[in-house]
Amino acid sequence: MNELDQIARGIAAALLEIEAVALRPQEPFTWTSGIKSPIYCDNRLTMSYPEIRDLIASGFATLIEQKYPDAEVVAGTATAGIPHAAWVAQKLGLPMIYIRDKAKGHGKQNQIEGALKPGQKVIVIEDLISTGGSSIKAAQAVNEAGGQALGVAAIFTYQLDKAVQGFADAGIALDTLSNYSILLEEAVELGKISADDLASLQSWRQDPTSYGV
Fold it and tell me: What is the Cα gyration radius of the chain?
């Protein structure tokens, strides 16, 4: 098992431990879109656990050093990506910026806050990838502002086909510290779900409408 695989399993276990990720195959959650989902992820909870947020920041630092060694700026997506971007920027000794979902309607009407120089290579930090749309827009905003988005790095992804296809179509690289498949493996090992639930949870990723809308 390589270093990034070890990080993925450690973070999956940590997210389950603090219930940042909850699995309810028998009583699914309802997303804003109306989709019924057996999983709910709220990585904002990690801010309240110093050891876990440091584990995440260290994981991002390792990922960036291995896959994006040319990164010159760390960008956080508003709002959930901002604290993690700050912690990893501090670890790497790099400048930090953050990206709003849209430009402000007053003042300088900035969409990107902080100093971004023309041509600077940027890694975008996100907390969660569901369908990927907002993360893709954040990376595109960096490019439109004159920077160069090397890719998006997120704590966790549901691994939905729509997100995979969206990043591919946009030509934007995506890396995550952990993912749905690894999380399910850890959940079984930790006794969070039964073996009977596993097949249902795996089928949801292949077809997110399998729980109904």
Answer: 17
| Total residues found in the chain within this entry | 213
Instruction: Confirm if 124 and 138 have CB atoms less than 8 A apart.
Output: yes
Cα end-to-end span (Å), the chain: 39
Please give the angle made by the CA atoms of 99, 178 and 148, to the nearest 5 degrees. Answer: 35
C-alpha span between 94 and 141 (Å, rounded): 20
Region class of 64: left (phi > 0), else alpha (psi between -120 and 50), else beta: alpha
Alpha-carbon distance of 183 to 102, in angstroms, equals 32
Give residue-wise pLDDT tens across range 105-123.
555 668 999 999 999 999 9
Rounded to whole angstroms, what are the CA distances from 180 to 9, 79, 88, 105, 199?
11, 22, 23, 37, 13
What does the pLDDT read at residue 196?
84
Q: How far is 154 from 179, CA to CA, in rounded Å?
A: 10
pTM: 0.95
Asked whether 155 and 56 are in contact (CB, 8 A), the reply is yes
Triad 179, 180, 183: Cα angle to 5°: 85
The C-alpha torsion from 55 through 61 and 63 to 64, rounded to 10°, is 160
